[in-house]
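Q: Given only this backbone (352 positions), what sequence would you predict?
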């Protein structure tokens, strides 16, 4: 990544967000933060950091009882040295390819009567997180439990064995093992026209709260590029946010970005403007709800973004092969129209 001077060190997205009672932050990785100018940009604009992969069970325990905590310890130390708040992402994930492969393999060989083998491992992992990382005061307790196509719990080996108890256990274990942490249910839905996913999330939250689950907030990942140039339903989005507010839950915009893969025009300036307009429209509606307490981007710049890594799925990339431009700063850390959209939406948000 090219090294350039920061354009405006007097302005901070975090300070602007704080002036409205919000927090602003970004995911971080050891690789991206190895570039000095990018790390300085992150420290300038963020009061909150999220380990991109460091605290995920699959990365932290790649083999059973063999922990790899280098990334987690590095992230903890970075947040401590720079006096940044840290979010934990995530305890469990209702996806086969996002959980430890050894755990999925074990679960696939179990009958329902032996489900306690999985619950014991969940309790052990929750104990490890609570004991080793007590400074983390906010955790995504469960990630992506709902199947977008059906609105029901995604069918995995974990839900086969435990059904809805898998969701419940995630929150009950984390409340016991990290009693001071705010617990978040993190999901992918947003303002797309199709309501199935949103409605499924609402019903899941309603049932969970009725059972007394310690759910403190809903995390809305807000990867809104999937609706750029596609149908969206702004009225339904307001209604959804109104229902969440009525449940007494806070909202965290937990992984905000806007891929431009759906824009066929190859001109970067045109694409950047369309992305900015899309982001502002989404944020103007969403930040209007005072129970939205945090805005977390999944990268501040295009260069270090997960979108532009070789590992990013080909079907999510641009068909013309150009790099995706889904973040406030470009690959040379130059500000883009999306940064102005963030500024304006934050400045106009009601005071919390």
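A: Predicted residues:
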């Amino acid at each position: 990544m090219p090294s350039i001077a920061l354009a405006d060190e007097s302005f901070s997205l975090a300070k602007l967000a704080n002036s409205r009672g919000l927090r602003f932050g970004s995911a971080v990785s050891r690789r991206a933060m190895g570039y000095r100018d990018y790390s300085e940009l992150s420290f300038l604009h963020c009061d909150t950091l999220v380990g991109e992969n460091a605290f995920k069970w699959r990365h932290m325990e790649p083999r059973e009882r063999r922990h790899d905590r280098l990334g987690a310890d590095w992230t903890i130390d970075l947040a401590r040295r720079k006096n940044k708040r840290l979010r934990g992402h995530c305890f469990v994930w209702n996806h086969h390819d996002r959980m430890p492969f050894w755990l999925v393999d074990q679960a696939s060989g179990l009958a329902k009567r032996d489900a306690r083998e999985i619950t014991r491992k969940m309790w052990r992992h929750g104990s490890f997180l609570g004991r080793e990382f007590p400074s983390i005061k906010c955790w995504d307790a469960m990630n992506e439990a709902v199947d977008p196509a059906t609105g029901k719990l995604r069918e995995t080996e974990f839900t086969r064995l435990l059904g809805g108890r898998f969701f419940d256990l995630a929150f009950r274990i984390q409340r016991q093992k990290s009693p001071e942490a705010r617990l978040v249910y993190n999901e992918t839905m947003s303002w797309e026209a199709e309501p199935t996913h949103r409605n499924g999330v609402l019903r899941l939250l309603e049932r969970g709260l009725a059972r007394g689950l310690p759910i403190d907030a809903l995390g809305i990942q807000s990867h809104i590029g999937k609706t750029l140039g596609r149908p969206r339903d702004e009225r339904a989005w307001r209604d959804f946010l109104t229902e969440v507010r009525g449940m007494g839950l806070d909202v965290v915009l937990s992984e905000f970005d806007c891929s431009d893969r759906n824009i066929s025009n190859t001109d970067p300036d045109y694409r950047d403007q369309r992305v900015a307009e899309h982001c502002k429209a989404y944020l103007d509606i969403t930040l209007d709800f005072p129970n939205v307490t945090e805005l977390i981007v999944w990268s501040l710049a295009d260069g270090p973004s997960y979108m532009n890594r070789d590992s990013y799925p080909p079907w999510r990339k641009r068909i013309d092969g150009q790099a995706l431009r889904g973040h406030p700063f470009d690959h040379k850390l130059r500000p883009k129209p999306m940064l102005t959209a963030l500024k304006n939406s934050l400045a106009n948000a009601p005071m919390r």
